[in-house]
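Hi support team,

I submitted a single chain yesterday and got back a structure, but I'm not sure I'm reading the token output correctly. Could someone confirm the output below corresponds to the sequence I sent? I've pasted both exactly as they appear in my results page.

Thanks,
R.
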Amino acid sequence: MGKSALSLRLAERRRLVIATGNTGKLREYRELLAGAGLELIAFDSEVEEVGETYRENARLKAEAAATRSGLAALGDDSGVEVEALGGFPGIRSARLGPTQEERTTELLRRLEDKPRPWNARFVCVIALAEPGHPTKFFEGECKGEIVPELRGAAGFGYDPVFLVPGTGKTFGEMPAEEKRLYSHRARAVRALLESNALDRLSV
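Hi R., thanks for writing in. Yes, this is the structure output for that exact sequence:
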């Protein structure tokens, strides 16, 4: 392919803003959307997550990024819901403490007097916003179990304490390609890709 043809091909690539300042989440999206033929642009919209649902928070982030960039934008909200805690922390998963270490410690502290297994699920809702078009939503979940000690250093967030049924591993013990088979975010992205919504982006 000649230089001019390659330049034209790159110029024709559709662009998609990923509205996050979380480096782990951004890395996952780059992996999950690697074959979508998109130019991914990181953009931290720094929107305060004041919604009462994953859907509302995902919408806030995606629409703010789309408005500020003029491009289609993907935002998400996710969390871990623990059955023994009535679904807590849920949308407050990122607010249990200033660092992830403290958040995980606080979650395990709250579970200390609860009988095991600590059944849980990870939830992810993706919002796809494009200027001039209705915002679309896609969801994914992964059921599992919280374990009382950190296992593995892969992934991010609560991955090292989330055991995936039938694998004997936490997300923290899985290489990225294995995690993609099970994760809530991967399932939400698959729903997005299967909808063909990305193929219809205008910019």
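A quick pointer for reading it: The CA atoms of residues 150 and 172 lie 8 Å apart. Let us know if anything else looks off.

Best,
Support desk
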